[in-house]
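Notes, Module 5: Reading structure tokens.

Key idea: the token line is not a picture. It is a compressed description, and you learn to read it the same way you learned to read a sequence, by spotting repeated patterns. We will look at two proteins. The first is printed below with its tokens.
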Amino acid sequence: MSDEDCQSTVSILSSILIHHAESPHWPDLIQHLKDVTSSHALQANQITSKRKLKNMKIESEDYRDGIIIKMINLISPFDQHLTWIDVYKQRAGVQDIFPEHIIASIPKSHHDVDVTKLYNQKGIYTFTIDSFGTRDMDDGITILSFDESKIRLGVHITNVSSLFLENITSSQDLLNHDLFKQAVERVTSIYIPGAESSLENTSSPNMKVIPMMPVEISEQLYSLVEGQVRPCVTYEFTIHKDGTFEFHGISLTHAVMEHNLSYDHVDSILNQKEFDHPSAGKLVDFNFWKVLSDCCKALEIKRLENGAIEFDNQSDLKVYKDCNDVISLSVSERRLFSSSTIITELAILVNSVSGEFITKNKVPCMYKYQPPYELKEPWAHSDPLHRKFLKITDVRFANGSAGVSADPQGNSVVGVPYYVQQTSPLRRLFDLLVQIQLVHYLKVKECLFTFNEMDHYAKLITSEGQRKMNVEQNTMDHLLVVYLNQCLQKGVHNHHVVFKGYDDDHHTCKLRLVDLNQYHITGTVNGGLKGDKVKILKKLKNIQVKIVEADPFSHSIMVEFP
């Protein structure tokens, strides 16, 4: 095959791979792929015996596309090797690099800052809490005063709106802002293992960030970096140990973070453990930490009393990949961190009071809503293994699913009457739009966006946001299968899964990894099953089966029953 023919074939296959049925080449190839798949399915289904089910192959919907990737790599030059991660990014329209003229337009520093009126100067201590190595820091805290029963503090959200609102008098002016157009196109920052990007997030050796805004903004000029003056939207509260609070208002401020702390730093302080930090002695001497933790825990308890859902500890999976593409996994329990509760509860508090302020003043906005719910089965299940596998997807909602809307609605899962998002304006378009609308209103008592404009953005975020976020989840699922395949090649057979049953109508079943309980593999039993085999499968609920084969291209799994 000539180079020209190879290039043409790769172009056709890539079009089918990325665009599926929307590709003009789809009808020409789909029948051939169906024939290949059917032949493969017939062979795989013959693995099982007549009376006793031993092995079973479960194929994901990626089987056909896996064949196409193999074909493309077979005829492409070595330096044009295609991966599933490339495919995920192309399907979602993810762009790694910003145009040069946009980078050139970013200001080098903040101006009109009165350093004699910094918010943190009236407080005890100002800091951030994030995962180790985080660079796009959106939120910080200033401790103002405290006693044994309460704490007064300011919650700072970096004021990214100040970058856009200068010389802006209408929403149309904003639509002509090149950087704003980029944020609308990208919708969210994406954090994916193994993706090519201009920046590496050191919180995980292979976690790459494809930011919603250039790193010159998200990780430098507007990130709450310690020692640097930053414009902020500041929310001031007094929080009591009984879970009640007073909201003292919203103000536009400037503040300097004294330290960027990690969750581990704060948990070590709370648990009186030694930790590595240049100012460890000073941090330990502050005696507000326990009051802060207790008050935030009380906020959580109060929300639960208002109907919020309490989630069990969930595993946080990190993927590590070395220079030889060998994958290893690290699992930790996220919700065990007291510091995580501090950040979560303060974020919910800010978002809920923002929602109430915006609704009260009839400012068009977007709400993260969740209708009242009913549990599919009792939440407090007696079997700890069953509780471990329980997820939010196991909750049945009586009046519809969650979403984003311009209509003021409550959020029953969080347990608050109104809930907007504006605590991560560096990372999410939702938060940025809410902050721009809020800050503009605080300044001139007028609304920049109309209800119809907010409704348009709510629909955009719902559709495009999910498409972008699928890149993260799909990449994790793919690397999980690659990891299992590498383990099997090494002769490691200790990776078991829980078989969640068989759907006779669609021949589907779900495998959930025991050690990584929030990750599951759902697929179709190859070729379907009949007779006694179906009866056997329907009786199998939550039993452990062993993985004997994992295909990183087709994402199919062969399992062995006990």
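Here is the second protein, with the sequence above and the tokens below, as before.
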Amino acid sequence: IKQLEKLSSNKNEEIKRLNETINMVRASSQARLDDYNDIFSYLEKKYKIHSEYEIIDDWYVINEDYFQIELLGYENATKVDFYTLRVESGEGPIRVFTDTDPTDGWIYTNDNIGQIIDKHKKPLVPGGFSYAPSFIMYTEVTLEDGKVISTSKLPIYNKADN
């Protein structure tokens, strides 16, 4: 009976993890709903992250305080505004940086991204309160002709301290 109870407990934990994965993938998709035909796997062709990160459940997970992201392409742009938007907050987008110098690429750098993208906080006790804010990043690109276009949304969050 103890072996069956342990097996049952392990399977319940696995089901819980899989449900969390489904919920995170769903949230990533919902955050990118108006990106039309841009699927998650296309984001690596739009952005390059020059920081330590991993992809978990269709989210870019930042693993360090130093953060640098580059918008790829747009050689005919004159300005790129970088924005963050906290998902499910009711807050509007926040412009975190404007790049007007294309000589080094369209790059946003922050030495302490935790000031912009809050870190996840694990519960202090099992079953306790956790804090897991999620964000999207995107840019608005001003082209030479004055036209402004928004780029695909990058779902992102800041990993909890261990």
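Summary for the second protein:
- The chain has two helices and ten strands.
- The beta strands are 47-49, 53-56, 59-62, 67-71, 77-86, 94-99, 106-110, 135-143, 148-150, 154-158.
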